[in-house]
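Contributing new records

If you add data, match the layout below exactly. Sequence lines come first and carry their own label; structure lines follow with theirs. Keep one chain per record. Anything else will be rejected by the validation script.
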Amino acid sequence: MDQADQAVDWAGDRLGSYDRWALVPLLLVALYLVVALLFRRVLPVLLDQVVAPLAVLAVGVVGIGALTLEFLAAQPFRLARRPPPRLLYAVGDLTVGAIPTVQRWLRGLGRQVWRLAWLRGWVVLLVAAAVLAWWNHGWCDRHAGASCAAPVTAWQSTVGDWWRDVTR
């Protein structure tokens, strides 16, 4: 947030009083482009190439751990030459059946995330507007002063002043 604040302060100092009206819409457009890039390019690659393989690996490790516990729990029965309880067989069968299914589902999810590349523009705009509102909300906390006005509020008053000057 500090870098965004510094950029807005820098741009605001260099713009004239009526030129500041462009600051908030330009910030919204920049946020839209960044969020669109993240959602449509970066996030799908990250989820498909990094997160999904790591999740598949983690599920495999959990499966190996469950089968190891099943093996260790069955060993006392085998040493006594008695059959292990059927519950242990059920746990092993469930593990052997569920792990490949979950891994296949995770791989498919990694491929399905490429649908984010076709994410509707209004969703990206909604996320960008939410980020702008979140940034705007804490402005006065980060800029303590007697006459603090959040950027969107200042933009509204600047545009209102401009409109009154134009319509007179």
